[in-house]
Amino acid sequence: MDKHKIENSCLHQKQPAGYAAGATQSPVYLSSAFAQKSPQEMANVFQNRQFGYLYTRISNPTITALEEKLVELENGVGSVACASGMAAISLVMLTLLKCGDEFISGNSLFGGTYSLFTEVFPRMGIKGVFVESTDVNAFEKAVTENTRAIFVEAIGNPKMDVPDIKAIASVASRYGIPVIVDATVVSPYIFQAKDFGADLVVHSLTKYMNGNGNAMGGAVVDLGTFNFKSERFSTDFDIYNKKFGKFAFLAKLRKQIFINLGSCLSPQNAYLILNGMETLGLRMERHSGNAKILADVLNESGKCREVRYPSLSSHPNHEVAKKQFGNLFGGLLCADFGNMETAFAFMEKLEGVLHVANIGDTRTLVLHPASTIYHEMNEGQRRVAGVTEGLVRISTGLEPAELLVKSFKAALAQI
Ligand SMILES: *Cc1c(COP(=O)(O)O)cnc(C)c1O
Questions:
Q1: Which has the higher per-residue pLDDT, 341 or 18?
Q2: What residues have CB less than 8 Å from 331, skipping those under 6 apart?
Q3: How far is CA 55 from the centre of its chain?
Q4: Residue 185 half-sphere exposure, CB side, CA atoms within 13 Å?
Q5: What does the radius of gyration of the chain's CA atoms come to, in whole angstroms?
Q6: Contact 113 CB / ligand 1 (< 6 Å)
Q7: Is 117 in the pocket of ligand 1 (CB under 6 A)?
């Protein structure tokens, strides 16, 4: 879908009749449960013979409005919104994998995802095999008869590597394995996962989708491209395939996992995220523009051992990134100052930025990954994740570029 259509979808409701009393915003249904008119109707809704709402842990009209919007933006068949990005990743993996199954994951992962995959899933007998995210052959070599998912991030954080999703998807489809892409750092405005062969997309809506840093949320979108009747999945998906057809995956996710784990999103947060999403396009343009300018400032300063941002022609995956993202590369960049002291000195000298462990806020945020999110990792794990001692992660906000450049140049001059 082109960028104009995405911006339009972010702004306008699909429902032809609109909301009650001509409201331009989705109403917030702060109701835990919903009444039906009769016992017969109640039975019909429970048995999926009639559409209706029962209980907010299952579904809620404000959350449905958000899910419908996500389906439009990703060109999918359906979506389930949930409490956080971590909930979304847990749900998609637990729907696909059971005890004894394996998944292959790129090794450049968000810290929370890494600890879910290495500390929680092994306790359930679900085994993760980690490969270099940009090494397509490594994904193929890791496939076994028990592999039931391939997971990658659109841009690794903080390594900033960009996997070739089309190439990975082509390997996966030969073996009948679905590809899940965590597209949090790019959003559908920059990256249309379906065009590159992904089957399932997960988002932390907490970050760029909302963009205002005021609500947690996550979502899974099924792009409708994977055949769950295939040999690898048919037994586990049988009853859902029969009953729900092309909605089998999300029906299984919602009924078997989501409801029972209690991973529902608050309707209040769904409203805030919907509201934030209205300006997704404008924000991604500014976030990306600011990041590109700061990457050049840092690169040209001669003060950094390495600057990681996919717009730079020195970036090892620059060509793949251009193919996948066009000319926008998001608001996340990293600079390596060689050691922690210099990194801290640089961060302390920066004016008008916040020291925050988040990304995708309206304000520019900086963080030293090695002493924070990754402090519990050993040397080897940090190397794999691209976390060096002198690395500073920057999440550009929406400030005017001139102000950021001034602040960055002044800080660079002092170290
Ligand atoms: C933040 C983040 C998550 C987790 O999302 P939460 O909403 O914090 O649970 C997952 N993946 C990526 C890439 C993230 O940046």
A1: 341
A2: 185, 208, 284, 287, 288, 290, 291, 359, 360, 395, 396, 397
A3: 27
A4: 28
A5: 22
A6: yes
A7: no
Residue with tokens 């960055």: 408
Residues 6 or more apart whose Cβ sits within 8 Å of residue 45: 36, 51, 52, 53, 54
pTM given for the model? 0.97
Measured in angstroms, how far is the CA atom of residue 185 from the centroid of ligand 1? 9
Length of the chain: 415
312 in ligand 1 pocket by Cβ < 6 Å? Answer: no
Q: Of all protein residues, whose CA lies closest to atom 1 belonging to ligand 1? A: 204
pLDDT in tens, 144-185: 999 999 999 999 989 999 999 999 999 999 999 999 999 999
pLDDT digits (tens, 9 = 90+) for 69-84: 999 999 999 999 999 9
Do the Cβ atoms of 399 and 364 come closer than 8 Å? Answer: yes
Ligand 1 site, residue 204, Cβ cutoff 6 A = yes
Beta-carbon-side half-sphere exposure of residue 286 (alpha carbons within 13 Å): 19
CB distance 390 to ligand 1 below 6 Å: no
More confident of the two residues 199 and 382: 199
207 lines ligand 1 (CB under 6 A): yes
C-alpha 241/C-alpha 228 separation (Å) is 7
51 CA from centroid of ligand 1 (Å) = 32
Question: How far away, in angstroms, is 296 Cα from ligand 1 center?
Answer: 27
